[in-house]
Every structure is written in structure tokens, then in C-alpha cells.
Amino acid sequence: MFDIPVSTLRYYDKEGLFPGIHRDSGIRKFSEQEIDALRVIDCLKKSGLEIKDIKRFMQWCVEGSSTYPARLELFRRQKQCVEEEMQRLQQVQAMLRFKCWYYEQAMQDGNEERLRHMKPEEMPEDIRKAYVQSHLTLDE
Amino acid sequence: MFDIPVSTLRYYDKEGLFPGIHRDSGIRKFSEQEIDALRVIDCLKKSGLEIKDIKRFMQWCVEGSSTYPARLELFRRQKQCVEEEMQRLQQVQAMLRFKCWYYEQAMQDGNEERLRHMKPEEMPEDIRKAYVQSHLTLDE
DNA sequence: TCTTGACCTAAAGTTAGGTTTAGGTATTAC
DNA sequence: GTAATACCTAAACCTAACTTTAGGTCAAGA
Asked: Which residues on chain A are in Cβ contact (under 8 Å) with B107?
């Protein structure tokens, strides 16, 4: 259903990611609760959170309304993280766009001579923008 | 300069990421070549490439013009990867937007009763959109 | 009956990408 | 002269997030 190996589900459970999971004579029963937990786990993992922090969140969920502020703050923080990650990826994309253009040119020319001496001002505008953007933060 | 630990630079070199690096009586000399390599390494790493694949790219760079097509294809593939990653992150963001709204409501209400019975149709439009978007791929 | 398959546990193993340590050389600062 | 630094290597260590293995229980089907 979720394309997650059984071993991973057991690992998650061992790590405390399903604090309230019910068992039927030893066998884990995944209810709508846990399905939902899996969605949140997936989301929080992709937002950069570690398992132990996801566990803490799952604990908050069983602790009730007193932990609403903590949970809200967590999601706000992760939203911020993802926004920053997207910005980094946009810079990465700029570099990749530039590199694709670069090697298209190199293939046409058969060598990198012309490119080696090219200044940003001589590049097509969109490529120059990509070049400049991708050479920002890591420079100097 | 790049805020990379010396140990990491040595590790990269050991992994073959600076194939043509020059040494002055045993000591590595980082020229403009290697500075540029570091930018590309950073970009390729963030695009999801592993060290051993970056090494392969660096090898191509010393092999000359015959590897232009391979290099171009690599950058095109990584561009694709990053685009897909951005889409995944947009879905994650939708979930986070929904969760932030959810807990803002829960804090106002003091409990989750109202929210528990709420159907997507009853949510504010932007939140409903976020909810629907974030519940897409992992569902059923 | 028996054997196939789904579930279980605890514990060991795996992988990537570094980091740390131990031991050594060479240059600079006082 | 000697002491603090910056560099070097090889090899051991580390962490997160799984995965694999070994060994066992139980129920259904041929």
C-alpha cells in the first residue's frame, strides 16, 4: 500500500513512531491512525527531520492538547527548513542549466577554447543569470 | 574560504575528486581548477549524486572532448532529478501548510473535535488545496 | 500431515560520507 | 634552540536509517 518494506515498519515501531499501536495476539494492527502517522512520518522525514525527533512529535500527539503549541512550532520550523532547501535547490538548478548550456556549446565547438575565454557579459542573458546565481554563495 | 573542513578536502582527494591536483613537495595546491571542482562537487552532491559518480565525472573532465556527450547527459539527468525533488518538496510544503493551519485551529478550539469531523469541503480553499495535494501520492 | 507463508524478536551487518586519531615532517615565531 | 603550526598518511571510528539473518510461533491449504 505504501511501498514501505515490512522491516522498515517494524524498525519504525521499535523506534517508537507508533506509540499507540494496537496488537492482536502479538501482531501489529495498522489502523487509520498509523496510516496517517506514516503520511506525517514521510512528510517530516522529507523535510529533514530525524527519526528521534519524529518520535518526540508522535509522543506529543498522545499527550493531548497541552502539546499543540509545540507541534505547531515544529511544523512552522520545518516549513522554514523546506523553504530554505528549495532556495538551495534553485541555485543548484541554475548551475545545472549553465552546465548543460556549456556542454552543448562545447560539443558544437568541439573544444572549450571559446568558452574558456568567455566572460559573463558575453553569455546569453538567461545563461548569464544562471551562471551568476550559481556562483554566488560559495564564492570568496 | 569554502567552509569545508580540511579533513573533508583530503577525503575528497583520496576518493579521486581532484584527479589533476598538483603537489608542491607533498602539499596539495588548490588552484582555480580545484576551486571550480569544489563548486561542481557541491552542486552535484546537492543534486543527489554520490561521490563515486562525481569521481567518474571528474575523470571525464581530464579525458577531454570525447566525453562531452557523457558530461552533458549527466547534467541533464541531474537537472531532471532536481526538478522531481522540487516537486516532492512542494507536496511536503503543502502538508506542512495544512498542519500549521490544523494546529492553529486546534489551539483556538482547545481540542481537535471540530477538526476531526471536518471534511475537505468545509476547509478554507487554500487549506483544502494543500490538504488534497499532500494526501495524493501516498494514498491507496 | 506437512509444508508453505505471514508474522514475530533480537542482534548483527550494511552503506555513505565523513571525522578522529596516532604518528610523522617541515616551516615559522620567539 | 625549541615550541607552536600547518601539512601529511593510514587506519580506526562514527552516525543514521535501514536491512539481513537466525531462530521461532501459528494458521491455512493440498
From this structure: 68-69, 72
Q: Of all nucleotides in the shown strands, which has a C1' nearest the CA of A50?
A: D16
Q: Strand B27-29 relative to strand A27-29: parallel, antiparallel, unpaired? A: unpaired
Residues B10 and B59 placed together within one structural domain of the fold: yes
Domain-located, residue B69: no
Non-local (6+) Cβ contacts of A19 within 8 A are A58, A59, A61, A62
Type of residue found at A32: E
- Chain A window 3-62: which residues touch B at a Cβ cutoff of 8 Å? 38-40, 42-43, 46-47
d(CA B54, CA B74) in angstroms, rounded, equals 10
List all residues 6 or more positions away from A62 whose beta carbon is below 8 Å from its beta carbon.
A19, A20
Helix (H, G, I), strand (E, B) or coil at A34: helix
The reply to whether B46 falls in a domain is: yes
B97 CB near a chain A CB, below 8 Å? yes
Predicted confidence (pLDDT) at residue A1 exceeds the cutoff of 80: no
B52 touches strand C (CB under 7 A): yes
Question: Which range of residues forms the domain containing residue A108?
Answer: 82-134
CA angle B55-B57-B59, nearest 5°?
70
Select the more confidently predicted residue: A3 or A106: A106
pLDDT band at A36 (very low <50, low <70, confident <90, very high): very high
- Distance (Å, rounded) from C-alpha B2 to C-alpha B35? 9
Strand C lies under 7 A from the Cβ of residue B2: no
Domain count, chain B: 2
Whether residues A135 and B89 touch (CB distance < 8 A) is answered with no
CA dist., res. B102 & res. B61, Å (int): 51
